[in-house]
């Protein structure tokens, strides 16, 4: 399924369906295909919007979690949205939290899946030697419980990013920013209904991270998905969408 990429000023985004806005924030290697099943399911009931985060377009100084959160703020302002349902995977969850902490009046609910913000195992000390395709394939497979979810197309995309020197630098800058920008002290201030949907087999933001989010965010609920890694909306879309639908139905209107 190919989605039309729309433009509004400097913003690029996908928008499908009608209803309350459901804004999806992707992670560091967040292809639009990551959200394909989610978009198809929820465009029947919501206006599903994916702003393309400028991971590689900001100056190196602004290539931070806060820089991306500012981009989301300006995008939501430009669209004139009020009371959005915000959903973020991995770095996208972290960006969503930073945005929400400053704009709780504009957010209705927040859903986090494999979110950074407390702790994550990134590419770590073994950041890929450029040109090592096999290494990139294995790292990409680690995102999932079932390594076959890491299709050749997905591996090629990650490989293309890390083999572009400037993009690789920006990925490292964002990963370091995510580690530095720990939200442990601030999460108690989030009063919105929060849904945590976590893969039990997530090795990047392990289960203990989900439990910590649950403990720190007052109005939160935690749902586990078994045999599932860091991107539940890709790996087990049926189960993920059912949990999310039930949560959103409780908070609509």
UniProtKB/TrEMBL annotation:
Keywords per UniProt: Hydrolase
Keyword Cell membrane assigned: no
Ranges where the AB hydrolase-1 domain occurs: 21-132, 183-235
Tagged with keyword Hydrolase: yes
Gene Ontology cellular component list: membrane
One Pfam family linked to the record: Abhydrolase_1
Protein name: Alpha/beta hydrolase
Organism: Taibaiella soli
């Amino acid at each position: 399924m190919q989605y039309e990429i729309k433009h509004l000023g400097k913003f690029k985004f996908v928008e499908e369906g009608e209803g309350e806005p459901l804004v999806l924030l992707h992670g560091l290697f967040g292809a639009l295909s990551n959200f394909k099943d989610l978009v198809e399911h929820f465009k029947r009931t919501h206006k599903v919007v994916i702003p393309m985060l400028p991971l590689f377009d900001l100056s190196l100084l602004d290539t931070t979690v806060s820089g991306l959160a500012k981009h989301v703020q300006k995008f939501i302002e430009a669209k004139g949205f009020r009371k959005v349902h915000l959903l973020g995977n991995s770095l996208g969850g972290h960006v969503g939290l930073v945005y929400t902490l400053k704009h709780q009046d504009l957010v209705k609910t927040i859903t986090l899946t494999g979110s950074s913000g407390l702790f994550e195992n990134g590419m770590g000390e073994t950041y890929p030697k450029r040109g090592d395709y096999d290494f990139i394939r294995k790292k990409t497979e680690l995102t999932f419980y079932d390594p076959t979810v890491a299709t050749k197309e997905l591996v090629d995309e990650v490989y293309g990013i890390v083999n572009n020197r400037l993009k690789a630098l920006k990925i490292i800058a964002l990963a370091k920013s995510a580690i530095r920008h720990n939200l442990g002290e601030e999460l108690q201030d989030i009063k919105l209904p929060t849904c945590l949907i976590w893969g039990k087999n997530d090795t990047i933001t392990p289960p203990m991270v989900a439990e910590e989010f649950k403990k720190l965010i007052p109005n939160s609920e935690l749902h586990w998905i078994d045999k599932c890694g860091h991107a539940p909306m890709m790996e087990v879309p049926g189960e993920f969408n059912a949990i999310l639908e039930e949560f959103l139905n409780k908070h609509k209107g």
